[in-house]
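Two records follow; treat each independently.
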Amino acid sequence: MRNIGKIKIAFSLIAINCLVGGNALSQTEIATVTSILDNPVEGQEVTLRGKIIGQEPGEDDYIFTDGTNKITIQLQDDNYPYNPDTTLEISGIIDFESQHPEEVKEDPTPENLQINVDRINVVTSNKALSF
């Protein structure tokens, strides 16, 4: 009988953890690339959901799209094994790639903005990644 009580308590704690954890994850606001380009704020932390579709040759910059537009993202790994069929959720900081930030505010384009990514989560993957 004592074991049944312990099992009930364990399941209760697991259920509470799932509810609290699930709520925390669902409260993350997903931005769009277009919304970032429409109103860029240097240093703002953002979360995007989409796909890496290419890499800048010889750099640790990648092209990311969420279907609304494209933007450059910078990863710590210049050999990240991306797959354009894999949906990712990325978080990072908006960075103006210009010596003149006031010009970026007036004319934000994917060429003069980037996201410095500090977190990547795989949401869905349709194909295996090749290393």
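The next record belongs to a different protein.
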Amino acid sequence: MLRAEGVAFYTEYTNSKKRCKSVGSCNSKGCCETAVIEVIDKCGRAEGNLIPILHELQNAMGYVSEEAMETVATELGIPIGRVHGTATFYTLFYTKPQGKNLVRLCDSPPCHIEGSKAIREAVSKALGIKPGETTEDGNFTFEIVSCMGLCGVAPAIMINDDVYGNLTPDAIPGILGKYAACSCGCKEVN
């Protein structure tokens, strides 16, 4: 599948209101099955399309659920282990719901030497979670990555697509505060 076709499909799919109403997860087995089958039909029913199918499912649902993987395996006629193995091998596929804001901390050798451990502790303290976890309100997911190519501004984090470098632990609460959900629960950013 060509990239342009994938982008056009994603735009059409997410604008068509066929997406599950519950952000980050399906609200019923039928919802997941319907969404998965529509993605497979658009991408093509061939094992060679497994990665594009998983990308489209993640874009549509926020992650690739166990139910979605089972449906993909059944629809493509391949073992569930192959689908699960692919989804868990690649680090940019998520098999559980992720927070609205994804905080990635670089732990490459330059970032590590420049103090990423102290930044990790500051992020964990500010969010009340460890790497690999999501806050209870679903606003943040915190993960450690091997390298973001930001060695010149080590230590560095990315929040969604925003880069922050030359960090100190004292800077972390202010940076994270820019992404905090409104206290009324409406999910608006402060």
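Discussion point: The beta strands are 101-106, 133-134, 140-145, 157-159, 162-164. How would you locate this feature using only the token line?
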